[in-house]
Amino acid sequence: KSCPGHRPVQMVFLDSLTPYSLGALLCMWEHRTAALAAMQNINPFDQWGVELGKQLAKNILNDIENSTIGNHDSSTMQLLQYFKG
């Protein structure tokens, strides 16, 4: 299990989070996941990458909540710096 980084990612920044925008984001994510899984003939909810993604997301959340940014690949570092602006 590894995540070397430098892979395509989809980032969405919103001015505000409303029930409508949250619903639209969830719908977009679910549709994208299901469509890609159907094309690749995989179960998108039973993959090692899901567990690894959860671990990586916890590290990123800690960096968002704290004043320092830990060690990440360059694209994640740029997004964190932009977000914390």
Architecture overview:
The chain has helices at 19-40, 48-65, 74-84. By secondary structure, it is mostly helical. The protein starts with 18 loop residues before the first helix and ends with a helix. The mean pLDDT is 84. The chain has three helices and no strands. Helix content is 60%, strand content 0%. The protein is globular, with a radius of gyration of 15 Å.
Topology (elements, then pairings):
Layout: H1 19-40, H2 48-65, H3 74-84
Short description, anyone?
With 85 residues, the chain is mainly α. The protein is built from 3 helices and no strands.
Entry keywords:
mainly alpha, globular, about 80 residues
Separation, N- and C-terminal Cα atoms: 32 Å
List the total number of helices.
3
Residues in helices, as a percent range:
55-70%
Main pleated-sheet profile: none
Q: How would you sum up the global shape?
A: globular
Alpha carbon gyration radius: 15 Å
SSE topology string = HHH
Spans of at least 5 consecutive residues with low confidence: none
- Please identify the oligomeric state: single chain
User: What is the overall pLDDT average?
Assistant: 84
Strand content: under 5%
- The counted number of beta strands is 0
Structural class per helix/strand content? mainly alpha
